[in-house]
Write a structure and sequence with these properties.
Number of strands: 12
Protein name: Cystathionine beta-lyase
Distance between the termini: 51 Å
Keywords: Pyridoxal phosphate
Family: Belongs to the trans-sulfuration enzymes family.
Strand order of the largest sheet: 1-7-6-5-4-2-3
Order of helices and strands: HHHEHEHEHEHEHEEHHHEHEHEEEHH
Helix content: 25-40%
Radius of gyration: 22 Å
Strand content: 15-25%
Number of domains: 2
Structural class: alpha/beta
Number of helices: 15
Cofactor: pyridoxal 5'-phosphate
CATH topology of the largest domain: Aspartate Aminotransferase, domain 2
Length: 383
């Protein structure tokens, strides 16, 4: 089934009187007519609704849809993307283990691995994920997890997923990836041998900047083990109301991504023509150093990217203030265009410059380009 059909077509549902939209099970508790049924539920499959901290039918419906869309066997939803990432990592490592993590991963993920879990004897080595040799060189006898984020969401760097998965298996380590940038529509890490996939559904999957949530997708064996341990004990559950909103966003995900990809590429190509911009980090552009890898691993590109300038962050923050259609904010994946300004990062300490991240939304791209042009007028004169 094509992904567009998968997210929009549901069979007739007699259980819910033919409701087109899955009802919201807004309750904490599920009861049973007899104690025999109660005992059977406890002894039966983990999927039986007993209490919404464990299973809720509305959330389960979303989980089934996300697993099918990503091509995994089973999914588990969480109250935030970070709850999913934290739970996934902690399900795969123990005290005394070593983790290899890409150095441009999401900031809170690096904080979790580099500081929080180090308190419990988990060691992490951060490496340049664009270099398979760097990943291989970082491996130790106790390496149990290689954590990936491809593309990364600031510098937009990729890892070779097939090569990383092959290497991890050769040393007996698991692989986990944050696949939020590409979404299930544009990248399927399971095709390359990755074990566990995480998404922040707050971003493209939700699509309307009105929910916070996360998901883990993997084999039934792995997700069942997470269900029985970290998921229940840490309690980072998704509510039925949130699940309903995510399912609404999921209906239009492939359609939205087609438009967002077009808009993002149109704006990125324009930015390459501006003299004060030294590099545009968008894997859909031939100028991106990993453009060929992107074409092998992904079937499309999303609309979050960044560009580098030789101007200071102070100058570029003034530039961002002049923008009319790009709002200043940290998240992305909704209908609205966004901008943030920061430093160039590791390796550029001696260079004057700044890194600007743009999220291109569903506005007309020509309007966004005109907005960038007017905000850049003074910079263009000085250039």
């Amino acid at each position: 089934m094509d992904q567009s059909t998968l997210v929009t077509h549901d069979p007739h549902d007699d259980k819910h009187q033919g409701a087109v939209v899955m009802p919201i099970y807004q309750n904490s508790l599920f009861t049973f007519p007899t104690y025999k049924d109660f005992d059977q539920a406890f002894a039966g499959p983990d999927d039986t609704p007993l209490y919404s901290r464990g299973n809720n039918p509305t959330v389960q419906q979303l989980e089934a849809r996300l697993a099918a869309l990503q091509g995994g066997e089973k999914a588990r939803c969480f109250g935030s993307g970070m709850a999913a990432i934290s739970t996934g990592i902690m399900s795969l490592v123990r005290g005394g283990d070593h983790v290899i993590c890409v150095d441009q991963a999401y900031g809170p993920t690096r904080e979790l691995l580099g500081k929080f879990l180090s308190q419990y004897g988990v060691e992490t080595t951060f490496v340049d994920g664009t270099s398979l040799e760097a990943i291989r060189s970082a491996a130790k006898a106790n390496t149990k997890l290689i954590y990936l984020e491809s593309p990364t969401t600031l510098t937009i760097r990729l890892q070779d997923l097939r090569a990383c998965a092959h290497f991890a298996k050769s040393i007996g380590a698991a692989t986990m990836i944050d696949n939020t940038w590409a979404t299930p529509c544009y990248q399927n890490p399971f095709e390359f041998g990755i074990d566990l996939v995480a998404h922040s559904v707050s971003k493209y999957i939700g699509g309307h900047s009105d929910i916070v949530g996360g998901v883990l997708i993997g084999s039934a064996e792995l997700i069942n083990r997470i269900n029985a341990n970290e998921y229940l004990l840490l309690g980072g559950i998704m509510t039925s109301q949130t699940a309903s909103l995510v399912m609404r966003g999921l209906r239009t995900l492939p359609l939205r991504l087609e438009k967002l990809e077009q808009n993002g590429l149109t704006v990125a190509r324009y930015l390459e023509s501006l003299p004060f911009i030294t590099r545009v980090n968008h894997p859909g552009l031939p100028s991106h150093p990993q453009h060929e890898l992107a074409k092998r691993q992904m079937t499309g590109t999303s609309s979050l990217f960044s560009f580098e300038t030789n101007l200071t962050t102070e100058v570029m923050k003034i530039w961002a203030d002049r923008l009319a259609y790009f709002r200043i904010g940290v998240s992305w994946g909704g209908f609205e265009s966004l901008v943030t300004v920061g430093k160039l990062g590791p390796g550029y300490e001696s260079v004057q410059g700044s890194l600007v991240r743009l999220y291109v939304g569903l506005e007309k791209p020509q309007d966004l380009i005109a907005d960038i042009r007017q905000a850049s007028a003074e910079l263009l004169v000085n250039s």
